[in-house]
Amino acid sequence: MSVQLTRSLATLLGEVDRPGDFHATGTVDMHPPRIQVEGVGTLSLPLLATQAEALVAQAEQAPYGRGTETLVDTGVRRTWQIDGARVSISGKAWAQDLDAMVDQAKFGLGVNGTVAAELYKLLVYDTGSFFISHRDSEKAPGMFATLVVVLPSEHRGGELLIRHRGREVRLDLRRDEPSEVAFAAFYADCLHEVLPVVSGYRLALIYNLVRTGQDQPLGPPDYDREHQWAVKLLQAWGAPAAGKSAEPPLTKLIYPLEHAYTPAEIGFDRLKGADAAAAGLLIGAAREADCDLYLALVSLEESGWAEHTGGGYWGRHDEEDFEVGEVNESRQIVDTWRHPDGSHPNLGPLPFELEELSPPGAFDDLEPDELEFQEATGNEGASFDRLYQRAALVVWPRTHRAVVLSQGGLEVSVPFLGELVRQWQEAGADPEAPLRAEAHVLAERIRNDWPEADWVRRQASADGTTAAYLRHLTALGDLAEIDAFAVGPIAAGAFGQTDNPALVEALAALAPERAQRLIHDIIAGNAKAHPVACADLLARAANRIIETGTGSAKTLRRAADALVHALPGRRATRSPADAYRYFAESTGTEPTDAMVADLLSALEHIAPDLARRAFEHLLKHPERYDIDRVLLPAALTLHAAETTRERPSAQALRGLALAHLRRRIVEPLEPPADWRRPAQVTCTCANCQELSRFLADPTRPEWAFRAAQRHRDHIAATVRTDDCDLDLVTERRGNPHTLRCTKNQASYLGRVVQREGDLAYLAQLGGVPET
């Protein structure tokens, strides 16, 4: 089925060789024209509101045609018109600008021969103006299409919708750049409408496009047979086969285009020739077959070893001196997405398989867009990097959407889920709406594919992806997925402190008993690896219960017990091989003052006996719960909050902190009486022993250490490691150089600053110094 589909669709699209489509659109950099309107004068561009009002005063209500009648009905058409005979447009380059628009329109519509643009009307749409769906009549001999040029004016809304044979495009011809003009052309038999102008004035020139030659039949391309064939192919692909796996063997299909397009040029409205014809056919077929269709850049990056074939000299080689050897690594991605409506969806890079190319082997005979060789260096042989890149039409059935998006990882699938939820909410948030069902399917897929690698999970928490996913589930009211995500990936370690606000909100949507069970499972599964995050979660959950009055915090007893049981204690001895892993994980495992404050605050509400147990644990492991780094700041936090200040564990921690501060405050604080400095040098080498003797000497303020650089560097490292009260300067006279060590009062000055801090902390805790 997969190979047959890729071959069949490529064959079908390859037969659609007539260029052109039912509409064309583009922009030109406009040279300022002189537009004079009878009864108004010369217009300023962008259009001024006062001139817009003057135009309306000189205009008439635009009528519309019904059969042989011409009627005015503001329920059908509300806009103002000025006949082209009353409008004069001149300027040094206006004729060239208009010719450029006509040429682009001819190319886009697939028209050969001479085409003239005859000014028909000047239309003014004020706020609230619109024109419902209609067809233009042929207003002049040879007229086959209409050209709409929207001039610079401040407005919002007024988009142009064009329909033909089940296809529809929505064009916003408003431009913020005053020197740029957007235009659209469409065949006269196409249905089109102008949506209401939300604010401001929309000023448009309407031209009749008139054909004078007969080189090619006029009218939009007719691909009915190919269209029906494409619809059947796509529908059969998207329909799950009876008895087959739910996982499709071919998730998406990629049809590379003939012409080259840069990332800046890529867009449905800029496709050329057969590419435009193939896209035009596939747009309608994809819509009818319920498929997603995009235009994108397809890239194949390869690298591997290369062979030096000779040539070159003294390290100078050209590309012809190498040949590509074997490919060792490759990366295949689709990105730079464009939608038929002109938008730029932020789908991110999606991987693809070569089997998804249509036709199979579409990249086999391509010349690389970039090829770079690297010469052999050291133990590394010569290598190469090459890039193949093509614009392509990318299509998949909407039934495959969840699978396709999940291939791009969380950075693709989670934002898309948020967009589905937003659209569902804006549409009225109907629980039975298809959008909600689709969002649920995607959410389930995201959960099933949640990454298992620890570093990816940590990144998802750090960059807010996990929290965003939880918020989307909450907004969707998808209780089943909230439950499954909490008991699955989160309880298994896909968890960080930044997830907690969204997690608590999500769990609050569940039945209280179930939410409490899940909090226990999450804490039990993460307390060893993420005690800081677990303490924060427990505190948030307890506070929510108290603030909302939805129950008793005591129901969190099992979760609290699991956390207390897993509190970090004595550090295990680590081998050097474990050092990197410890460094990577230490952010979540090392106790912090916030963790201690969260823990004791929550436990006092949940189970005071557990608060006592936790406090005793802190006292048993002073090397892990340092008094200055952890316990003192935690005491300050708890004492500052009225809800926790009088709790027993907070009082106990306050007493511990007060005693510590008072002991240190009463210690003598005087500057050194002589040049003796603390001499606790840990290294026992000969040079460091001399350093130690110098520090202990009460008469020597300086030591000139003249030695080789490696010895000077060692002394400098010892001074830094052991916090010696020394200033170091290297004197680069003579050989070897001299490291001059000068004693300072760093320890004393540090204690002065510490004393000031201790007194401030003592006051914050409501204590007074001992006399």
Automatic annotation (TrEMBL):
Coiled-coil parts of chain: none
Superkingdom: Bacteria
InterPro entries the UniProt entry points to: Pro_4_hyd_alph_FE2OG_OXY (IPR044862)
Limits of the Prolyl 4-hydroxylase alpha subunit Fe(2+) 2OG dioxygenase domain: 121-207
Transmembrane feature ranges: none
Short name of any one Pfam family annotated for the protein: 2OG-FeII_Oxy_3
UniProt cross-references to Gene3D superfamilies, sorted A to Z: q2cbj1_9rhob like domain (2.60.120.620)
Protein name from the UniProt record: 2-oxoglutarate-Fe(II)-dependent oxygenase superfamily protein
Organism listed in the record: Thiocapsa rosea
Lineage: Bacteria, Pseudomonadati, Pseudomonadota, Gammaproteobacteria, Chromatiales
